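[Archive record]
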Amino acid sequence: MAPRPILSALLSLALLAAACEAEPSLSYEVPMIFLMGRSDLHTPYASSRAHYDRTEAPLKRFVTFERSIHFVILEDPGRFLMTLVNEVLPLAGGAKEFAVIPDPGRRR
């Protein structure tokens, strides 16, 4: 009889394999924003664009970062921030007013 950790690992692998074979849902009830680096080798641009084209969502955007690879937040931080402000923030209801809470550890 196999030890329990091995059985658990085999069961996990079987469940993962079954999940990978199932056709994922491409219909969402929330906005979808794809932020893609043009030269991304980890998540190829063409297949990401094809996935975007098949996706159904109330609002969807495909933003291409021409000078980026995989980590658009690190490779083009200014444009990434502006994309969040211009594309994502309005979907979240815009900027909210907030009270500044003083830092108790900060000396005055």
Notes: The beta strands are 32-37, 60-65. Helices lie at 4-21, 45-54, 72-75, 77-88.
